[in-house]
Design goal:
By secondary structure, this protein is α+β, with helices and mostly antiparallel strands. The protein is about 20% helix and about 15% strand. The chain contains 14 helices and 19 strands. The longest helix is centred in the first third of the chain and has 23 residues.
Length: about 600
């Protein structure tokens, strides 16, 4: 049996990278696959992201919206099985649980279904329900019971040094988690803990470990769990590779540290409990008897050996590496017998209403266009549903005064509706999100339906104004018509005007011929404006001036005499928003002259927010 743990840094981009979820899972070639940092909310659990043929999946998503984040963290466990029912495979769990405090048992899982979890863990009586729910509310743990062992898929919280609130949360998280482990071990159960714990336990597990590195409270706690320090757990990778250096699983994304393998080992596989053998002779342990191999899947690393260094290739320097900033860790188990027949637990996503139990519609696959479709002729919300939109004849839309028209929403502008007008002909009914009348002061007397053609931009080198979309057009008979010319950018209603249209009698525009007799304001403006070639020349000169200014203002690093890159302080504090310059090369060991030289310089002024 093969178990893999992998922080995917977003499940959607990994599925997109491999083409499908099934291909992604098959590339790992494992019986149990544990993902961390899926970054999926419950509303985003689509079938193509959470279910694959031949796999049973179990998800825990973020339930809190702390700091405005609703789709971060999250874990998922995929189990490769031949059958989800009446199966004796160890990979298929006999039970599954979201979280590890026990409080989520009172909450519905998928729809109205509820799962009966064990009672709240012993020793947690001192914690309130709100505290326990806060711990499990970030979607950081899935527990699957495989009869021979209990598997914890954990994504440990990250806490920076000066964020006391998150440090307290992380301490409480691991304290409660340890109590759950101790409760299971007291029952004689075997435990596997896999995942990104966000802890590099020893100096050998970190590229830049200083003399006080191992004094950190979380690293001290981690090492206290190990058998060699009187604890109950084995660090499986270190048991198999006790002296291996540079065995990292995570690298900083903003410094290009993968190029020089300048990272840390924070993705772990731990195990505790007795082996499956009945002999009580010495030398038996879960690792020695059942773990055949444990290693790192380096083929999933984004930076491949032999790639051109970034500082020698401009394209590579600006390119974004595809893949996660972590790589998987795997373990192969041997001598694990089959178990009694059982079915997939109720927590499986096959019981999620969004991915099974009902047919998905095409409408559900697209975002709602509420602002455009809820504007009716009266200007109020429409009672027509999204699935069946009643489209009015184009000739019926010109019966309302212009001052009663509903102004276009901001969403319409964002969808670039001004650049696309719908062709309408008499007797035809075509869907259109532009259902605003165009006439003013009285009823319009239309003799035929409106014909509007898509207008193309005459120039791609400069930005067009809204007024440019309502200029003079030439009709089929050579007659020049102008539609809604007097609307300003501040008061524009989407026009449905075209050739052969008679405007309102009592309005400002009595006929198209009246407009033909008047000189065109746009023509007079065009004659006084510079040509397109002159505009291009001015733009080129201006860009050259800006580039020259930037080139002369960017300092050179002292180590390589190369232009630095600018960054902005994002952390809250007195320097928040302040710009600084650093060496552009990838971060690496100080002994490597090809790596970042460590140059740093503050910019002269703070950047504007």
């Amino acid at each position: 049996m093969k178990i893999v743990t992998y922080n995917v840094n977003g499940l959607r981009p990994r599925v997109s990278q491999f083409g499908s979820l099934r291909r992604f899972l098959d590339s790992l070639d494992a019986d149990i696959i544990c993902f961390q940092e899926t970054k999926l909310s419950r509303q985003e659990m689509r079938a193509d992201l959470v279910q694959a043929e031949g796999y049973e999946s179990f998800f825990s998503c973020t339930r809190t919206s702390d700091k405005g984040r609703t789709g971060y963290s999250g874990v998922a466990t995929f189990c490769r099985v031949n059958s989800a029912f009446s199966s004796n495979e160890v990979a298929l769990p006999v039970s599954a649980e979201e979280g590890f405090t026990g409080v989520l048992k009172i909450l519905p899982v998928f729809g109205s279904r509820k799962i009966e979890y064990p009672s709240i863990v012993e020793g947690l009586e001192d914690f309130s329900t709100d505290e326990l729910l806060n711990i499990d509310g970030e979607g950081r743990c899935i527990i699957t019971d495989h009869d021979h062992f209990v598997l914890f898929n954990v994504y440990g919280p990250r806490a920076v040094r000066d964020d006391r609130e998150r440090i307290e949360f992380k301490l409480k998280f691991f304290n409660i988690l340890q109590k759950r482990w101790e409760s299971l071990l007291a029952q004689g159960r075997r435990i596997f803990v896999v995942g990104d714990l966000n802890i590099a336990p020893s100096a050998i597990d970190r590229c830049d470990a200083g003399p006080d590195f191992e004094k950190n409270e979380f690293r001290t706690w981690f090492r206290s769990l190990l058998v060699r320090n009187g604890g109950s757990f084995f660090d499986v990778f270190r048991e198999k590779h006790p002296e291996r250096r540079d065995a990292y699983t995570c690298w900083a994304t903003n410094s290009g540290a993968e190029e020089f393998n300048y990272g840390s080992r924070i993705d772990h596989i731990l195990c505790a409990g007795p082996c499956l053998h009945k002999e009580e002779n010495g030398g038996h342990s879960l690792v020695a008897c059942h773990v055949e191999v444990c290693d790192i899947l380096k083929q999933f690393q984004r930076w491949k050996p032999g790639n051109t260094p970034r500082h020698k290739d401009i394209k590579a320097k600006n390119a974004k590496l595809e893949g996660s900033d972590h790589i998987p860790v795997y373990m192969c188990l041997v001598e694990i017998p089959n178990i009694q027949q059982h079915n997939t637990p109720s927590l499986s996503t096959r019981y999620c209403r969004q991915v099974s139990g009902c047919q998905q519609t095409l409408v559900s696959m697209f975002p709602r266009r509420q602002p455009a479709e809820e504007i009716n002729l009266s200007g109020g919300p429409s009672s027509v549903s999204d699935d069946s939109i009643v489209v009015k004849r184009c000739s019926q839309l010109n019966k309302r005064p212009l001052d009663e028209c509903s102004p276009p929403s901001s969403n319409l502008i964002q969808k670039d509706v001004f650049s696309t007008l719908v062709n309408c002909s008499e007797g035809s009914h075509k869907e259109s999100s532009l259902e605003s009348p165009c006439s003013k002061n009285g009823r319009a007397k239309t003799s035929s339906s409106v014909v509007c053609k898509k207008r193309t931009r005459e120039s791609h080198s400069s930005q067009l104004s809204l007024k440019s979309f309502f200029q003079k057009k030439v009709g089929v008979n050579g007659d020049s018509k102008i539609c809604c010319e007097k609307h300003t950018e501040a008061d524009i209603s989407i026009p449905d005007c075209g050739p052969h249209e008679t405007l309102t009698e009592g309005g400002e525009h009595d006929s198209a011929e009246e407009w033909e007799s008047k000189p065109s304001a746009s023509t007079q403006e065009d004659s006084s404006q510079p040509s397109e070639k002159e505009k291009n020349n001015v733009a080129i000169v201006e860009w050259q001036r800006i580039q020259q200014l930037m080139h002369t203002s960017i300092p050179l690093c002292k180590g390589h005499k190369e232009p630095c890159v600018s960054r902005v302080v994002k952390k809250s504090g007195p320097n928040s928003g302040r710009r600084f310059y650093v060496c552009a090369r990838a971060e690496g060991p100080a002994s490597n002259p090809e790596a970042n030289c460590g140059f740093f310089k503050w910019a002269t002024a703070k950047s504007k927010k």
